[in-house]
Amino acid sequence: MKKRLLKIILLVTMLSGSVMANTIDKGIISGRVVEEVGGLSIPSAVISIYLDLSEQPIITASTDDDGHFSIKNLKAGNYSVRVSFVGYAPLKVNGITITEKDFDKNLGTLKLGSDQNTLGEVTITVQKPPIEFGADGITYNVGSSLLAEGSTATDVLKNVPMVQVDIDGNATIAGKRNTRIFIDGKPSDYMTSNISDLLNVLPSDAIEKIEVLTNPPSKYSGDGEGIINIVMKKGFKVGFNGNAGISSGLQGNSNANANGSYRGKNYSINGSGAYRFNIGKGDNHNYRENFFPDTTFYYDQYGGYKNLNNGANFRVGLDWDITPKQSLRVSTNFNNNNSNTNSSNDLHYLSEDLAEQKLRNQLNTGDGSSNNFVFNSDYDLQTDTSGGKISIGLTVSTNKNLDFRDYSTTYAQPSNSNPTLQQNSNNTGNNGVTFNLDYEKPIFKKRDRVEAGLAYNYRKNDNDLAIENYNFTTQQFIKNIKLSNQFLYNENIFAGYASYNFRSTGWGAKAGMRAELTDVAFDLSTGENYNVKPYLSLFPNLSLNRFFRKRYNFGATYSIRVNRPRENTLNPQVNNVDTLNISYGNPDLLPAYTHQMEINFGAFGQKWSFNPRLSYSTSRGVIERFRTVTLIPGTSTARSESTFDNVGTNNSLALILIGNYRPTNKISANGNFSVIQSNYTSKLNSSLNRDGLSFRAAMGFSMQLPFKTAFESNLNYANNTNAQGRNKGSMTSNFSARKVFFGNRLNFRITLNDIFGNRSNTFFNEGTNFRLENYSTNNTQNFVFSLNYRFTKIRVNKTPIPPPPATMDPK
């Protein structure tokens, strides 16, 4: 009897253990995601499941066509859920506990509010997926990257899918010749004469996300084939929080930055400051073959440079909920940059048999300074209970830039050649005003949405160039009347738009039209006046999206964009720094219009996502730099003249592949690849009739390691064609390791940039009577050490998790 009783007890124990194990491994977290205004379901919203204290999600899934999700096979433990979707504020639910007795957690209905309107969140901490996909482009969440910590906007942009950053810090979207940089939805080219100066000092810790818009909505200006929108942090946490950091590289590069925010009951104040010191060094080799009917000769030039740059950036912002229906946001930004440049080059004149005939030595020095100030204000008024809203925005900006350069030229051979000395002083000012009035309203039981608005942009550019040549006889500088002049540019753009957004279960469609009236006038102090006849441009915008079978989406877009010639390309002032390679603008340029179409497909699994895109564009009157080589009258010397022109028509077909894979909750890999086929045809010059392929590839990898350490790396490669040649870049790389201390408040990071060697670039250019090859390298290989401290004093937002409904619609 005792043996039989013991067997029963053992059997019951085993069955109980088995049932418990099965129960523990079958935890479920489910719910439904809808819009806060209108209650319409959100298909393909990203659902990320986290274990407590984990920085990476263990499972990533998406909602089905009706916004439902159900995550199964979870073990017992404490979890949090993060819900995100492009265009909406992310939401995170903490405190989800799965036990053997309570393993089915239904979170009920989770509502996502507009990214622009929602100030609070369900929780304080937010862990965002690195990349989010949308119909009009992608979103890169800056806080998800180790490499972004303690760096600048330029550093971050180098690792954003579909974005390419050249050696001067200018960012473009792959396959797009004309990309505009926006900050908080407003064009930055109205804020500074050189956007790379701002991006090089703008701290990454003050950036929330970067949106790559390949098909910008009608609300945005029609200028540019694509837009990179940098969205700044707005102090969304309740209480006081922020961070401060410093970094330094072995080459002497260093920066320091700090930002903080305080949120009260109905307001928030945020601010940031940064300082950056950079040492740039490099060398170049330029070889040009010159072909003429009676002679052939060569220029072989070697040069090097060293730049010292320092700059500071300060931002202050206020978000104020005046009433439940009114809100005001005010922000200011001040940016200052200073530079000191020294360069030299030796130019060898070679005969047809490669014998040296002349050797020219040139030493150049320069000092520059610039400062920019921007004031932004945005006022929102809710007009009705259904979600109607009026928005009024005003941006005022001013920029000043002073550049002084000295050029000394001597000849080692023949020794009897006369030396020259020249001084250039360039004083540039930019002033701009942007005003916009927007209205949006949900209709048809809040299912659809209409938007309309008006905008006005004013831009004034004043470029005063003074050139002096040294008279060695009188030992005085004499003003060069032919080359010294003042360029004045005025631009007025009046715009209006309207769009309609349709939403249904699994479907989304958007149609919009934008009209812009452009009025431009510019002149030179020497007497030349140029008045461009005002012209009206229409920019239709269409997009269609389909979400199906819980894990797939399909989208198609069409739009017309314009590349307007502006002061940098219109200004006919001559740059004769190198008398054998001069450049100037073209005041006769015409706008270039581009028709662009794109098809994109997305597939999502628990551990992976894949997003291929196929785009086609055709442009007429493409504006690109065009080079010609001619003999200087009365000499045997060839001079290169570089200007801008409407070089012809370009048809471009691009395939872009973006994907990521997360095999475990501690390892993540992502990659993107672009190949663009370009076909140029031109009546301007037969040498421009050419086909070419451009390539861009990038790969990233991150891993969480024991003891609160992490590793991340990125590799990038680009090779681009243009109307007269090719830009062949080399591979760039970043490797970073991080260790966290004091409860995730302090982290130490080591970054190795370009482990495979300094960044190099090879440029090929060809015309009817010349061939040019330029090779350059820069000191980008560097070890960087960074410390960053995060401080937070918060008041917990005790928003309860909504209870599950009494009944659930299975759809």
Automatic annotation (TrEMBL):
Protein species of origin: Pedobacter frigidisoli
Localisation: Cell outer membrane
Principal place of residence: membrane
GO CC annotations on file: cell outer membrane
Descriptive protein name: TonB-dependent receptor
Domain Outer membrane protein beta-barrel, first and last residues per copy: 382-789
Superkingdom of the organism of origin: Bacteria
Start and end residues of each stretch annotated as Disordered: 408-432
